[in-house]
Amino acid sequence: MAQGFCSRPRAVFIGAVEQAARLATPAKAPEAASKVGRVAKLCADGQLSFTLVSVDEETAVEREKLDAANDDVGLSLLIASQRLLMVANGTQVRILEVQPTQSRCQVRILEGEHYGKTALVLLGELRELA
């Protein structure tokens, strides 16, 4: 070995290379899957006559941060930009997807000003219809 040069030890791989199996998407809980397609009503806790719903995952995460910081100005900006929708309590929605790990679901709004739009709603803000 010549002076002034460093030599790193090489790692030696011994074994056969096999094709990795695709990761299967985790199966959804049967209870969560059974809610998909059902119609429910928005029912926020508290004394408000409306529910704030996020239009996408990014907005839902941002809303959580703003709620934790008590940032009413930030929430107002999300509402003004139509990223947070004010939807009347009792509005019917159809459940499109349930995200049990985040306690949220994606819904389609079936009535009112935001008819046809999709939104993310906390599971606790929904009451299923009989």
Characterise this structure:
By secondary structure, the chain is an alpha+beta fold. It has 3 helices and 7 strands. The protein has one domain: Roll (SH3 type barrels), CATH 2.30.30. Strand 4 and strand 5 form a beta hairpin. The radius of gyration is 24 Å and the shape is globular.
How is the biggest beta sheet arranged? 5 strands, antiparallel
Shape, per Cα inertia axes: globular
CATH topology, which one? SH3 type barrels
Query: What do the pLDDT scores average to?
Result: 80
Assign the CATH class.
Mainly Beta
Supply Rg: 24 Å
Q: Architecture, CATH level 2?
A: Roll
The portion of residues assigned to helices is: 10-25%
Descriptors for this entry?
single chain, two-stranded antiparallel ribbon, alpha+beta, 130 residues, 5-stranded antiparallel beta sheet, SH3 type barrels
Write the layout of secondary structure elements.
Elements: H1 30-35, E1 39-42, E2 50-54, H2 57-68, H3 72-80, E3 84-88, E4 92-99, E5 104-109, E6 118-122, E7 126-128
Antiparallel strand pairs: 1-4, 1-7, 2-3, 4-5, 5-6
Helix pairs in contact: 2-3
Sum this structure up briefly.
With about 130 residues, this protein is of the alpha+beta class. The protein is built from three helices and seven strands. It has one domain: Roll (SH3 type barrels).
